[in-house]
Write a structure and sequence with these properties.
Rossmann fold, 11-stranded mixed beta sheet, 20 strands, 387 residues, alpha/beta, Glucose Oxidase, domain 1
C-alpha cells in the first residue's frame, strides 16, 4: 500500500510599490515578475483574458475567487501565447473538469513562463487598487521569495511605470497574416495589429472582409499596397500618448477618405488623431460587465473592457475636431464614471469604441458594431461609385 504524502505549497509574495506585502503560494512558473497590477472582474473567460495582448506589461488579479476549473483548451486562446506579466488568484482549482480541456491553467502558465501567486486575499488587494489606483508590483517565488523585503520593494519601485510605454512592437505580428472573407467579399481590410484578438479577426471575416493583419511598423504605402476597402486599429497595451507614429499613420488614412473603425487602443489613437488628449484612469476598466450607453440608439449595453487610458473629450454636443477633421461627437459613454467610450466623425466615414465588441469572453450586446462598420464601408463604396 502506497502512502501519498502531502506536499506543502511553496511560498510566494506579491509586493506593491506602496510597500504593502501579500504573502501566498507559488502558482505557475517560479521566479520574479514585474508589471502594473490591475484587477479584472470577470468570473469566466480567464483563458481569453490571459491571452489578450492588451494585458502585456500587467500583473492581472482576478477578483473572482475560484479560477481554473475549466482548464485550458486549443480553441479559445485569443492569440499565440499568454501575455499577462503575472497572474494573481485566490483559490486555483485543484482539478480540471471540462471535457474540452487539454491541460490545466497552471500547466499553461508554466509553459509560457508566467509567474503567478495564489492563496492571497484578492478582495483586499482590489480594495487597495480601487482606492489608490493601479500601481507597480512584483511577484516573487522560488529563490526570489527569499530576498529581503527591502530588496524586493527596491526591485518593484525601479520597474517602469505604464505611462509613457509603447508596447505595440512587443505584441504585433512580424509579418502579414490573411484570413479569407466568409461569404460574399466586400473588400480587403487592413488591420493594424496593436494587439488584436482572434475573435475580432473572425467577426470581421464573417462580415465579408478579407482580413489582412499587418505589423504595427507598416507605412501608409504598405496599407495602400493591399488595395484596402477600409482600415481597422485594434486593441493593445501601452500608453496612447507614446504612439505618435500610429497617430500620424491614422491621419494619412483619414486624409485618404478610407473608412475607419478602431477599438480600445484604436479608439484612443483615433481620439488623438482628431486632436484630443488622452489620460490615465485611476484603476482602469477591466472585465465583462461594464455598462455603456449608445447615445445614437439610447440603448444600454453590457460590454467587455480592458483599458487603463481614455480620451479627454466633451461627452455632450457636437465638437469641431481640433485637428481639422470636421465635426465629431462622443457616441458612447460609460455609465459607471461618464468616461468617453466611443467617438464618431460626422464628416468622415470613421468611428471607434473604447471597449471590445467581439466580447471574448463576455456578453455580445455590442456585436452590432461590426455590422455598423460593414454598412459604413458598403455605403462609402456606393457613394464613390455614384460620385
Amino acid at each position: 500500500m502506497s502512502i501519498q504524502r502531502f506536499q506543502a505549497p511553496e511560498p510566494a509574495v506579491l509586493v506593491l510599490e506602496d510597500g504593502s506585502r501579500h504573502p501566498g503560494h507559488a502558482y505557475g512558473a517560479r521566479g520574479t515578475t514585474l508589471g502594473e497590477v490591475v484587477f479584472a472582474t470577470a468570473m469566466t473567460g480567464y483563458q481569453e483574458t490571459i491571452t489578450d495582448p492588451s494585458y502585456a506589461g500587467q500583473i492581472v488579479l482576478q477578483t473572482a475567487p475560484h479560477i481554473g476549473n475549466t482548464g485550458m483548451n486549443a480553441e479559445d486562446p485569443e492569440s499565440r501565447r499568454i501575455w499577462v506579466s503575472g497572474y494573481v488568484v485566490r483559490d486555483p482549482s485543484r482539478i480540471v473538469s471540462n471535457w474540452r480541456a487539454d491541460h490545466s491553467l497552471e500547466d499553461a502558465l508554466v509553459r509560457d513562463g508566467i509567474v503567478g501567486i495564489s492563496g492571497i486575499d484578492t478582495r483586499a488587494v482590489t480594495r487597495v487598487l480601487r482606492s489608490a489606483g493601479s500601481m507597480r508590483g512584483g511577484v516573487f517565488s522560488g529563490d526570489a521569495a527569499t530576498l529581503t523585503e527591502d530588496e524586493q520593494l527596491r526591485i518593484v519601485r525601479e520597474a517602469p511605470e505604464m505611462s509613457g510605454q509603447n508596447l505595440s512592437a512587443d505584441v504585433s505580428v512580424s509579418g502579414a497574416e490573411v484570413t479569407p472573407a466568409v461569404g460574399d467579399k466586400i473588400g480587403n481590410l487592413a488591420i493594424l495589429d496593436l494587439g488584436v484578438k482572434q475573435a475580432t479577426v473572425n467577426n470581421l471575416a464573417a462580415r465579408g472582409f478579407e482580413v489582412h493583419v499587418l505589423p504595427q511598423s507598416i507605412s501608409f504605402v504598405d496599407i495602400q499596397a493591399i488595395d484596402p476597402a477600409a482600415v481597422f486599429y485594434s486593441n493593445g497595451p501601452g500608453d496612447p500618448a507614446a504612439s505618435d507614429r500610429h497617430v500620424a499613420l491614422l491621419r494619412e488614412v483619414l486624409d485618404a477618405g478610407l473608412p475607419f473603425f478602431g477599438i480600445c487602443f484604436g479608439n484612443q489613437l483615433f481620439g488623438r488623431a482628431l486632436g484630443f488628449d488622452t489620460y490615465k484612469l485611476p484603476f482602469g476598466h477591466r472585465g465583462i460587465n461594464q455598462p455603456v450607453l449608445d447615445k445614437t440608439t439610447g440603448r444600454v449595453e453590457i460590454t467587455a473592457h480592458n483599458h487603463g487610458f481614455a480620451v479627454d473629450a466633451p461627452i455632450e454636443g457636437v465638437i469641431d475636431s481640433p485637428s481639422g477633421y470636421g465635426r465629431v461627437e462622443v457616441s458612447h459613454v460609460g455609465l459607471n464614471d461618464n468616461v468617453v467610450e466611443g467617438l464618431r466623425a460626422l464628416d468622415l466615414p470613421a468611428f471607434s469604441v473604447q471597449y471590445h465588441p467581439e466580447a471574448a469572453a463576455g456578453p455580445h450586446d455590442a456585436n452590432y458594431l461590426f455590422d455598423r462598420f460593414r454598412d459604413l464601408v458598403i455605403a462609402t463604396q456606393e457613394s464613390k461609385k455614384n460620385a
